[in-house]
Amino acid sequence: MTPKKMLSLASRLFGQAEPAHSADRALLDSLLALAWVVEARDPYTGGHLWRVSRYAGLLARRMGLSDRDAANVSVGGFLHDLGKIAVPDSVLLKTERLTDAEYAVIKTHPEVGKRLLAKHPFGERIADAVYAHHERPDGKGYPLGIAGDEITPMAAIIGICDAFDAMTSTRPYRKAMPIDDAFAVVRDNLGTQFNREYGEMFLELGGSVNLYHIAGHSDEGIPLQHCQTCGPTVVVRSDTVEDAEVYCPACTASYRFKGVLSAMLPTGNKASAADLAPSPDLALIARVTGQLHSLS
């Protein structure tokens, strides 16, 4: 799906005519649905938004934030990469080193995300997660290059959790880093790439909570599955039944799902275009946004 088509989808999703309170809820759910579709463009990032959301919610509560603020942070974690809707596939999916020009395109996604949120009823609550999660305490981040206390807690939390999940996830050019190694990277970059206080709390969290129930998963209790032919993530949903067919988004190979603790079985079939059409996991999204809905 091209960025132009995705923006058209965003327009349709936001064009709902319902009573104000109900419309606000529907708009938030549809915003996360759009973020889910954006994530689905990259065959290696399945579950990234859910994992960042879960890490961020745990860290926010560890820091003593209120239930409402922690829920905002968690939802912000799911939406942080919304602006990648405007990054072309040729850049977003490139497996080689990006050129300076291509990296400049990647660096536009916080601004695009901010624009998408500008008139949204929940925009002010989560804007920092979308716009400032790549800022750094040492001022070497983007898009503004702000530093220290200029970076809000929400942005700092998402920045830590986003980087940690990137390190502990498989990419086409490298395998996932072991969790302990990723913690070491966070520790070594406290005060430069990561907020020192929040980073130390994240490390404490890792020492007291088994994060393996999040790392390497795409939903609660659902470990990531990978294509046995070419490697990308094959996302399995909570409502996927045993013996259902699931598909590699890259090579279109078909597999028979045999349960969350079992390897998928190749069928020898190939997915159709309809099989590969992105369809947001509305049950997962409802659980994420339900944190805020329950506090309304």
Terminal Cα separation, in Å? 34 Å
**Oligomer designation:** single chain
- Return residue spans where pLDDT drops below 50 for at least 5 consecutive residues: 6-20
Main sheet record: 3 strands, antiparallel
Bin the helical content: 40-55%
Any idea how many domains?
Answer: 2
Total DSSP helices? 13
Write the CATH fold name of the largest domain. Hypothetical protein af1432
Task: Please state roughly what percent of the residues sit in beta strands, choosing from under 5%, 5-15%, 15-25%, 25-35%, 35-45% or over 45%.
Answer: 5-15%
Strand count? 7
CATH homologous superfamily annotation of the largest domain: Hypothetical protein af1432
Overall CATH class of the largest domain: Mainly Alpha
Order of helices and strands: HHHHHHHHHHHEEEEEEEHH
| Main sheet: strand order | 5-6-7
Q: What integer value in Å does the Rg equal?
A: 19 Å
Net shape: globular
On the 0-100 scale, what is the average pLDDT? 90
What CATH architecture of the largest domain do you see? Answer: Orthogonal Bundle
- Structural class by sheet pairing and helices: mainly alpha
Q: What report would you give on this structure?
A:
There is one protein chain. Helices cover 49% and strands 7% of the residues. The chain has helices at 3-14, 20-40, 48-62, 67-79, 89-92, 100-106, 109-117, 123-131, 153-167, 179-188, 196-208, 273-276, 282-293; strands spanning 217-219, 222-223, 225-226, 233-234, 245-247, 253-256, 265-270. The longest helix has 21 residues, at 20-40. It is mainly alpha-helical. The protein folds into two domains: 3-220 and 281-293, Hypothetical protein af1432 (Orthogonal Bundle); 222-276. The two termini are 34 Å apart. The chain has 13 helices and seven strands. The strands form three sheets. Strands 5-6-7 form a three-stranded antiparallel beta sheet, with no helix packed on it. Helix 2 crosses helix 13 (282-293) and helix 3 packs across helix 9 (153-167).
